[in-house]
Amino acid sequence: MDKDIMIGVDAEFLELGIMELPVNCVVVISDGKAKVRELPEHGEYRIVTHAGKIKRMRREEGEEF
Question: Does the predicted TM-score (pTM) go above 0.70?
Fold first, then answer.
């Protein structure tokens, strides 16, 4: 599940309903936006930044051999 959440300019709080979220996920906040990304079973998420802002989030998956 990938979900984008807009944050208001005057917002002091970010509320997420935990029942809607995947069991294993990450919440990333940058430049007035929040993104929820489900973590892969086996793999990693890479966050690439540029000029202090998130430019890209890359999901890399693998499996045990």
Answer: no
